[in-house]
């Protein structure tokens, strides 16, 4: 495995994923400061973006991974694969938007936005454009062009951040001189609805940078035979993607149904804000995936591929545990990432972060069925995990609120991860370094428990952070020792 190449690409993709989404996450302090928890406004944002994530998985229907798989197959033309993928996803996205606009009234009423159907229309347009752009972003990854990938990601993120800052910091200063602006602000739930319009504008602007990819995609003829083969490969990935996203967002979609009324919106807003703190783990997983997927698929015929997968798993787990400790040990500082009215939900952060680690491990385990063209196993295992997660939510959310959401994700991803490991070792054995994985996991658990004990001593925050830094150093030294042994 070329660790140097993996590290270089992870850093570049990380700039667009981790740094870029970190800039986007800087909006969370803004939202939680300007949108009080008791207003339920942030609950609206959490709810609609949960639907967006689910619909994006539906509209891309596994074509990102399928693009990689067929582009690397002997006898397949990479340009035809890309052009066919782009047209299929584009056609589905167009049909989706048309359907939503025709049925906008009933859909808005069912979601609880009868007075603001424009929110639903806006999000439908956003998710359709995101699905179309996802194929072009995958094309950049497949061609090994991380710099343009990063630039286009920032072309959305930076204007989005600036326009949101304008909405919540500058617009209120103009209300006295521009009463109409104040009326618009109030009409759209005190700025909450304007978040969606800004997202739509920024997403549309990204198409300018995709001029070459659009031209390349539509100059290739549509290959019906290729499309059929790709669809046969991708339908299990569609199920896999859908249930995978359900594990991530079903709690937020179900919550308003299980805890109806304003109380549901308030709790969902608190949960959604605190979950953002835990999302550093998903950022790490995404950056790792963007760099790692092309390496694995381009080398899928290499006899050393199982060793490549074993190395990838080991270092993902090590750095995921490092990220977990970094968040939990410095929580006295990190908690200020959200407004104080949302701090009641901070207890879900470690649970959600562990669930995200399970999800990342599950992603790494998924290569055995992708490389062996047994993608139906992914759909089956993910469906079982999603069923466990939904069951926990339905049974326990009415009684325990958003804490049940966190434990539902933990249980769902945990079950899917264990199933993938057990079945995968029979179908496609991979020599995972279980000793190292267990050692680092136990070490991280001991250090976390030690930090919890220190927190209960009611020490001065500076002393607590200093001692936690020592604990972090212990884990860092363990990583360095492992890397030296590898050399």
Mean pLDDT metric:
83
Whole-number radius of gyration?
23 Å
Anisotropy-based shape: globular
User: Which percent band covers the strand fraction?
Assistant: under 5%
Percent helix, as a range, is: over 70%
Q: Major β-sheet, in short?
A: none
Low-pLDDT runs: 299-304
What is the SS-derived class?
mainly alpha
Distance between the termini: 14 Å
Can you characterise this structure?
- The chain has 487 residues and is mainly α.
- It contains 22 helices and no strands.
- Helix 4 packs antiparallel against helix 12, helix 5 packs across helix 11 (211-219) and helix 15 (305-329) packs parallel to helix 21 (434-456).
- The radius of gyration is 23 Å and the shape is globular.
Task: Note the main attributes of this structure.
single chain, 487 residues, mainly alpha, 22 helices, 82% helix, globular
């Amino acid at each position: 495995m070329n660790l140097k190449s993996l590290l270089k690409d992870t850093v570049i993709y990380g700039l667009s994923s981790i740094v870029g989404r970190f800039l986007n996450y800087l909006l969370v302090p803004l939202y939680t400061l300007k949108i009080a928890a008791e207003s339920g406004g942030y609950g609206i944002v959490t709810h609609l973006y949960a639907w967006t994530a689910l619909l994006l998985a539906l509209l891309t229907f596994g074509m990102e991974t399928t693009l990689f798989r067929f582009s690397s197959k002997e006898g397949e033309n990479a340009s035809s694969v890309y052009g066919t993928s782009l047209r299929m996803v584009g056609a589905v996205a167009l049909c989706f938007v048309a359907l939503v606009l025709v049925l906008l009234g009933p859909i808005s009423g069912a979601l609880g936005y009868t007075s603001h159907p424009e929110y639903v229309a806006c999000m439908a347009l956003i998710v359709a454009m995101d699905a179309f752009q996802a194929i072009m972003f995958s094309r950049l990854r497949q061609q090994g062009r991380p710099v343009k990938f990063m630039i286009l990601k920032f072309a959305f993120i930076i204007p989005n951040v600036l326009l949101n800052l304008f909405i919540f910091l500058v617009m209120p200063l103009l209300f006295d001189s521009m009463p109409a602006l104040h009326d618009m602000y109030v009409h759209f739930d005190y700025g909450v609805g304007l978040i969606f319009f800004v997202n739509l504008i920024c997403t549309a602007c990204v198409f300018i940078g995709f001029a070459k990819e659009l031209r390349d995609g539509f100059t290739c003829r549509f290959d019906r035979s290729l499309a059929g083969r790709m669809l046969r490969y991708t339908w299990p990935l569609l199920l896999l993607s859908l249930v995978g996203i359900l594990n991530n967002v079903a709690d937020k979609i179900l919550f308003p149904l299980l805890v109806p009324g304003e109380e549901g919106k308030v709790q969902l807003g608190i949960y959604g804000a605190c979950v953002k703190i835990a999302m550093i783990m998903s950022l790490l997983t995404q950056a790792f995936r963007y760099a790692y997927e092309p390496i694995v698929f381009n080398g899928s015929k290499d006899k050393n591929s199982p060793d490549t997968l074993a190395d990838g798993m080991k270092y993902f787990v090590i750095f995921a545990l490092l990220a977990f400790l970094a968040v939990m040990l410095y929580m006295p500082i990190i908690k200020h990432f959200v407004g104080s009215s949302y701090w009641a939900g901070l207890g879900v952060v470690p649970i959600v972060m562990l669930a995200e680690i399970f999800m990342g491990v599950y992603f790494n385990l998924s290569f055995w069925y992708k490389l062996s063209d047994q993608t139906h196993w992914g759909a089956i295992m993910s469906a079982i995990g999603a069923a466990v997660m939904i069951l926990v939510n339905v049974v326990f959310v009415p009684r325990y609120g958003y804490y049940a959401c966190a434990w539902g994700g933990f249980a769902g991803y945990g079950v899917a991860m264990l199933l993938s490991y057990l079945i995968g070792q029979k179908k496609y054995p991979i020599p995972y370094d279980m000793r190292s994985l267990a050692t680092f996991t136990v070490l991280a658990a001991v250090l976390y428990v030690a930090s919890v004990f220190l927190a209960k001593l009611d020490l001065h925050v500076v002393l607590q952070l200093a001692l936690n830094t020592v604990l972090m150093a212990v884990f860092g030294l363990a990583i360095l020792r492992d890397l030296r042994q590898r050399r």
